What we know:
The complex is a heterodimer.
Chain A: H1 2-7, H2 12-25, H3 30-44, H4 49-62, H5 65-71, H6 74-80, H7 86-102, H8 111-117, H9 125-141, H10 149-162, E1 172-173, E2 176-177, H11 179-189, H12 198-216, H13 224-244, H14 248-262, H15 267-280, H16 287-291, H17 294-303, H18 307-320, H19 326-337, H20 342-359, H21 363-377, H22 383-395, H23 397-411, H24 418-431, H25 443-454, H26 459-475, H27 480-490, H28 498-513, H29 516-522, H30 535-543, H31 558-568, H32 595-598, H33 606-609, H34 618-628, E3 635-636, E4 647-651, E5 655-664, E6 667-676, E7 683-690, E8 699-703, E9 715-724, E10 733-740, E11 743-750, E12 759-761, H35 766-775, E13 782-788, H36 795-805, E14 808-810, E15 820-827, E16 832-842, E17 847-854, H37 857-868
Chain B: E1 3-8, E2 13-18, H1 24-39, E3 48-51, E4 54-61, E5 64-70, H2 76-94, H3 99-104, H4 106-116, E6 117-118, E7 121-122, H5 127-152
Antiparallel strand pairs in B: 1-2, 1-5, 3-4, 4-5, 6-7
Helix pairs in contact in B: 4-5
Amino acid sequence: MEAVNLLSSNKYSEKQIGYLFISVLVNTNSDLIKLIIQSIKNDLSSRNPVHVSLALQCIANIGSKEMAEAFGHEIPKLLVSGDTMDVVKQSAALCLLRLFRTSQEIIPSGEWTSRIIHLLNDQHMGVVTAATSLIDALVKKNPEEYKGCISLAVSRLSRIVTASYTDLQDYTYYFVPAPWLSVKLLRLLQNYPPPEDPGVRGRLNECLETILNKAQEPPKSKKVQHSNAKNAVLFEAISLIIHNDTEPNLLVRACNQLGQFLSNRETNLRYLALESMCLLATSEFSHEAVKKHQEVVILSMKMEKDVSVRQQAVDLLYAMCDKSNAEEIVQEMLNYLETADYSIREEMVLKVAILAEKYATDYTWYVDVILNLIRIAGDYVSEEVWYRVIQIVINRDDVQGYAAKTVFEALQAPACHENMVKVGGYILGEFGNLIAGDQRSSPQVQFQLLHSKYHLCSPMTRALLLSTYIKFVNLFPEIKTQIQDVFKQHSNLRSADAELQQRASEYLQLSIIASTDVLATVLEEMPAFPERESSILAVLKKKKPGRVPENEIREGKSPGPTANHQTEQPPAPAPTTNNVSTDLLGLSTPPASQPSTTSTSNTGVLLDVFGDMYGGTGTPAQANNVNNLAPAQSTYNAKKFICKNNGVLFENDLIQIGVKSEFRQNLGRLGLFYGNKTSFALQNFMPSLSIPDELQGKVNLQVKPVEPVLEAGAQIQQMLNAECIEDYSDTPSMVISFLYNNVPQKLTIKLPLTINKFFEPTEMNGESFFARWKNLGGNQQRSQKIFKATQPMDTTATRTKLLGFGMQLLEGIDPNPDNFVCAGIVHTRTQQVGCLLRLEPNKQAQMYRLTVRSSKESVSQEVCELLADQF
Amino acid sequence: MQFMLLFSRQGKLRLQKWYVAHPDKLKKKITRELITTILARKPKMSSFLEWKDVKVVYKRYASLYFCCAIEQKDNELLTLEIIHRYVELLDKYFGSVCELDIIFNFEKAYFILDELLLGGEIQETSKKNVLKAIAAQDLLQEDEAVEGALREIGLL
């Protein structure tokens, strides 16, 4: 309270202390803020510029919503008014910027735009500097409106870079003319594509060249400040060159300049040079130029004293890797991994795994690399990495024998990592037979080797090994008794883990009861995994959001990595991203992933085997299910979704859209999964809702926005919440627009949100059914349709559809057993509508008669319409 | 820029300025963790580090560490120079500044910082202009002090 009194004091010193107190200590207390707003208003309109400045500083320091509301109108006026002092203008610009960040709507548009842009021409350098920050933020919000700033920024920049350091007096910093303003202008230009006007473009390129030239000049001062300021401008210019990505000449020069920095004495410069080079490596023009520095970069990775610099070097190696140098880079990274810092090991392991997979031409090499990874840094090899190697081995016949042989050899080491045992167990269980011909790796030897590790492993690995053994029973009948002995040992109390005990005893029974044929079916080789985006990549992205260096060259690089990428990882189908570990089809304990092979054999004992205590089986099974539901190309299944909730809604060559949904009462949740099937990123990716007028106010939808870029082969999920307020017909749509290869694409997809989704099934007996049926006999309440069957009149299919439709199917009520009757309640926010239905098939005439009765006419009609289309 | 911290080699926080709103608890946590991280680094290491989702730029002047957290896209080298400019300003104002100056005249340190940076962006890069603004403030204060003194002894 005292502070508020101080604010309104006439004495400057008291006022100042009041403001200081408020800006340091008050930033959330809204009661106080209301009180001080009046004082600030007074000061803002004061004639003394010092008071105005104080007020502006205070607003900027607090920058709350209340502030934005109270001063959003005043400050722009101050900013562009002719008689505001320069100092005040500077503060006003930044103050406005701060308020703009809290609430985007405060900035006036129209005539203000050009007046704000023209601040770039202001005489006073301080004003220009502050204004550039503001414009940069405004441009991000509304690039089109502020387009005029491009040419002004370029000419301002050109005046600065050609100025000698004496011209700008106090705005020269250690012989560098206006470094802050230069950097800000260069930043501003990075919001736009290269200027279209050839004149402006030429001038900009001249500026950039001048900056590059200046870097070669001998320093004007030995002070570190001089070189920092100069290089700050240089690095920003290089960012702009990379951003524009159109001038091969400039890109290569930039690359050479950074190459020089790689061996500079200053750690800071080496760090930044590595960081910028990461970006250069992704441009098709400079990718080759970057590769020239490979040796130095490898050296930095090994020799650099500072771990953050080493980290940058690793990132750069990852970014510059392509088909030609993959083997060398991967080898160097493996070598380094042995001594690498613990803090970066896990990330390195992921990177090595990704590179090895992506650029493998020879999959034996890939297998070697991954096994080496496990050997060198087993603790840092996450589940995804070893899952992935197994997926790849299973999907590629040509490496299976090699893989079996290599893991067998690796397992012979006296101490080997548990992850190695897992991979070894899995692979030998599947492909052990391929090397069993050799005396040195006979079934007997393989089994004993694996079993010698059994006691050293965690329960999870043991469970995996038990599965391997049962697979051996099938592969090598000759060691069956030996394996049965092991099962016997572990099926009793000696095995403390309940899961292991159960597994052991079930496997034991299986091996005793089942005939060879059944065994062979049950323990068949695993089916190939559906190809998809490497889950490892997803992990890497999750681990370092926003700063995963790209290992994908932009545009054009035709024969190189992109082609390889395509064959290697065709588009990701189906919902996969939500949970990476469950996503791997329940690999956590192998038997859980076998239902497809075993569901045919109905041995009672077997069913229990698939209970999995280690990982959720629900999600992967579902994901798998959806996966299989995507058979056709370019399909749009909107109609099918009336009677089901999950599956692929739309698919063409570019994109696949899957849906998972669940409904309760009048609420629903939809997960939309957009999968990019191409090998290019889809830009400006934007799904937006389109709700027909007649649905306004009847249904309430909320969507979460998604990232504007959908990477090649990647998939994103969008959640949508729906609430039914009143019954409706038709459905809302999703309009999905994006750029593919710079060609705009637009899709309109009807969302599976038909009114029947809000049905709650109701059970009732014949008596009450007919009582209600009669009650709803009026013309207003009933709707009837007679139509011809478009599909075979199959009773089971019809039942499935009716069940999926959401109503309760009532058995034994209709005197005619061929007829179907259903009951349900449509839940909306405002009311609940009871609904009864009767479907009478006439097989001779191939016709149906559908009658719907409900307490509301519109509901009867819509339900009737929806369902009549389905048969 | 998200925030600026000044702390001593012993890990004592001397000045903090936040340009994004965080609850106090979080601020304390960030400060504590960051100070420990930076103090553990060796002199030859680079002045930049990636920390959580921000870039941190720091520099040591005598016994004081100056540390700024900036956005991913901000220019690191120039941030170092913002720090340097601030140090220069303090130096000029206090006449070879030392840690004690900042402890005892913290309000001045804040005023100078407010003139240099506003809302996390650089406001005035000219040393002369900043010092002029501060001098103007001081003059007003002195005038008032003189006025008050005169009034006290009954001359006004």
